[in-house]
Amino acid sequence: MNNNIKKAYIIFVVDSKQNRYSKPNIDKILDELSMLCDTANYKVINRFSYIQQKIDASTYIGKGKLEEIKLMAINDNVEYLIFDNELSGSQVSSIETDSNIKALTRTEIILEIFAMRAKTNIAKMQVELAFLEFQYPRLKGKRTNLSQIKGGIGLRGGAGEKQLEYDRRRARERIHKLKMQLKKQENSASTARKGRSSVFRVAIVGYTNAGKSTLFNLLCKEKVYVEDKLFATLDTHTRKLYLSNDAPVEAIISDTVGFIDRLPHTLIASFKSTLSEVIEADLLIHLVDASDEHLNDKIINVESTIKEIEAHNIKRIIVFNKSDSLDKVEINKIKTSFDDVILISAKNNINIDELRKRILNIILDLSE
Questions:
Q1: Other C-beta atoms within 10 Å of 15: how many?
Q2: pLDDT tens string 197-253
Q3: Which of 10, 67, 108, 277 has CB atoms 3.0–4.6 Å from 254's, for a disulfide?
Q4: 267 burial class (0-12, 13-18, 19+ CB within 10 angstroms)?
Q5: How far is residue 21's CA from residue 76's CA, in Å, rounded to a whole number?
């Protein structure tokens, strides 16, 4: 047996009032949390969902349910309870009391994935900043785990300084330093972008794992890292966009980090420099996995994030990827639901030339 397997239960709780008004798709929520856990190398042993009268202030799910879950966890050798909901530091401490079980949240799993994926110094700084800003308000009443994502924190506390105040001061100083370093990087990147301001800029956006990097490779005839995993791309790649041998205009294209439902605000803020390629683009290609049964929800989520980063006024086209896996009924459904549909397969190079023509026509129209 592999002793490195991190066994987990995943849990989603909704209060009855919220459930009555919004009816969350609990299976979809837990499916995505399970996929996130898999990407972060947690093995989901069981999943639980509860609709309850009100959220328990102490343990979130209530002491009785918590004791039941803990007993099952002991029998299954499970050491992690992963909540789709956000927990306060005191709730985490209450859940973990008198056991070896650790309580984590969806946001922490996403942060873990980002930490795993970060390859460049900028990406590592962005992830560390997001982690610290997430943890800072939760330090009170929660175990100290500022070292979970390494970032060279090496400050010293004064004699007799309380651990909590030491942790908070250390976090504040590190957050300030990271923001200054990232601001410096952003200023350099902004200067570089101004140097190419006359060039038309295209950015590919979309839900994570929609196939953005594969499409990017085709459109710029380059080769960047592609993996069938969530958040495979964290750093923005920008290359010359190949439109045709005799294209009358020059353009560049950027591949960007994937979006996800309820993308943590700390990540959006920390990845501001990466998302600048989206904010400053002249055209957005919103890439959608056409084979996803929840594609409408994911389109809404991406559009919501585009609005949150104030890029909603930028011209954009929706492109449906993985269309070769659809039957005629599914294709017709998409064509009747959306205007001016472009169906492609980046993996199998289907209709890519049609997409290039569409992009070129838009560039020419916007350049008049």
A1: 13
A2: 678 999 999 998 889 888 998 998 766 555 555 555 555 678 889 888 888 888 998
A3: 277
A4: buried
A5: 35
Residues whose CB falls within 8 Å of the CB of residue 207, separated by 6 or more in sequence, listed in order: 258, 259, 260, 288, 289, 292, 298, 301, 302
| C-alpha dihedral (133, 134, 137, 141), degrees to nearest 10 | -130
Could you give the CA distance from residue 110 to residue 33 in angstroms, rounded to a whole number?
10
Under 8 Å between Cβ of 256 and 288: no
Report the side by side order of strands in the sheet with 6-15: 42-52, 6-15, 80-83, 102-105
Question: Which segments of the chain have a pLDDT < 50?
Answer: 1, 144-145, 147-160
Which H, E and C letters describe 10-23, residue by residue?
A: EEEEEEHHHHHHHC
* Sheet architecture: strand order including 251-255: 237-240, 251-255, 200-206, 283-289, 315-321, 342-343
Question: CB of 298 within 8 A of CB of 312?
Answer: no
Query: pTM here?
Result: 0.76
Alpha carbon 91 to its chain centroid, in Å, reads 25
